[in-house]
Write a structure and sequence with these properties.
Elements (H helix, E strand, L loop, with lengths): L4 E6 L3 H12 L4 E5 L25 H14 L3 E4 L2 E7 L5 E6 L2 E10 L3 E3 L19 H4 L7 E5 L3 H10 L5 E5 L9 H9 L3 E4 L2 E7 L6 E6 L5 E5 L2 E4 L3 E3 L29 E3 L11 H22 L1
Parallel strand pairs: 1-2, 1-6, 2-3, 6-16, 8-9, 8-14, 9-10
Antiparallel strand pairs: 4-5, 5-6, 7-15, 11-12, 12-13
Helix pairs in contact: 1-2, 1-6, 4-5
Length: 310
């Protein structure tokens, strides 16, 4: 069967762009599909301090812009498109169909690098209040809250980083965490404790977001005492982790209980010729550096897979 591309990469974050760079250098006919703008979630990261090669840090936008330009230099084609489903094809599964909202494409090798998106609190009016005081990105929306009081929810690296960034604009950040200690790295924990604009509320969960057309506060419950209280705030930032963008792959490749795609160390999924890389993959650490490593391995193994087919 004649296919449209040797390899299709779904997702244009660090993993996808790295896979595109490596496969492009291998002179393969490669297409990267990205629903939004190449760069992924990193585009919304104000400052990246822990990516090697950038003493003093680099903005998320600049880092991803450089990754994209480098991949384009080696012939990577990038196309805007939303993937609806993937369908392994043929008796030997030696080609795959990628179904888009406006058509379909075929390829020999497929690399899934769709990443993950912010996890929601699951409160009744949460979605309705997005843009009215609820935001999942402090670096994106922090400037809208100059001089105001906000609540940030979470205890991992993202919650700590975003809370610290918000202090550039807001008068006060109430950092609400359901446990009695943070999960984030020590350097971030120390910075939060030193900040005179951050007040931590331990052992507490948000049970409701108050307000009609605009957030006015949050309802809280202490998980140890069950004591209920209210906290007036102008904005709410749920920063409680991520969930994988993998719905289109359900029933095709194996997923773990959280919906992340399971692979071996070679980034191979349960389906021959389909690989996964980056935050969408089931793994211990989700960082830009690990996504880049995943993307390189997935590209290398996809190239080896192509050699086996020929």
């Amino acid at each position: 069967m004649t296919v449209d591309r040797d390899i299709i990469i779904i997702g244009g974050g660090p993993a996808g762009l790295t896979a595109g760079l490596y496969t492009g250098r291998s002179m393969l006919n490669v297409l990267l599909l990205e629903k939004l703008s190449p760069g992924g979630q990193v585009l919304t990261t104000h400052w990246v301090e822990n990516y090697p090669g950038f003493p003093g840090g680099v903005s998320g936008f600049d880092l991803m812009d450089k990754m994209k330009d480098q991949a384009l230099e080696f012939g990577l084609a990038i196309q805007s498109g939303e993937v609806v489903s993937i369908q392994p094809g043929g008796p030997e599964q030696d080609y795959h169909r990628v179904v888009l909202t406006d058509g379909e494409l075929t390829c020999r090798g497929l690399i899934i690098a769709t990443g993950a998106q912010p996890r929601k609190l699951g409160l009744s009016n949460e979605s309705a209040m997005v843009g009215k005081g609820v935001s999942y990105c402090g670096t994106c929306d922090g400037p809208f809250y100059r001089g105001m009081t906000v609540a940030a929810i979470g205890g991992g690296d993202t919650a700590l980083e975003e809370s610290l960034f918000l202090t550039k604009f807001v008068s006060k950040v109430f950092l609400i965490h359901r446990r009695d200690e943070f999960r984030g790295t020590k350097v971030l924990r120390d910075r939060v404790r030193r900040s005179d604009k951050i007040e931590v509320i331990w052992d507490t969960v948000v049970t409701a977001i108050t307000g009609d057309d605009q957030v006015t506060g949050v309802a809280l419950k202490n998980v140890k005492t069950n004591e209920a209280s209210t906290l007036p705030v102008d904005g709410v930032f749920p920063l409680i982790g991520v969930q994988p963008i993998s719905d289109f792959a359900k029933g095709v490749v194996n997923l773990d209980d959280g919906g992340f795609i399971t692979t071996n160390e070679s980034m191979e999924t349960s389906v021959k010729g389909i690989f996964a890389a980056g935050d969408v993959r089931s793994k211990i650490l989700r960082q830009i550096s690990t996504a880049v490593g995943d993307g390189a391995i997935a590209a290398f193994m996809a190239e080896k897979y192509m050699e086996q087919l020929h």
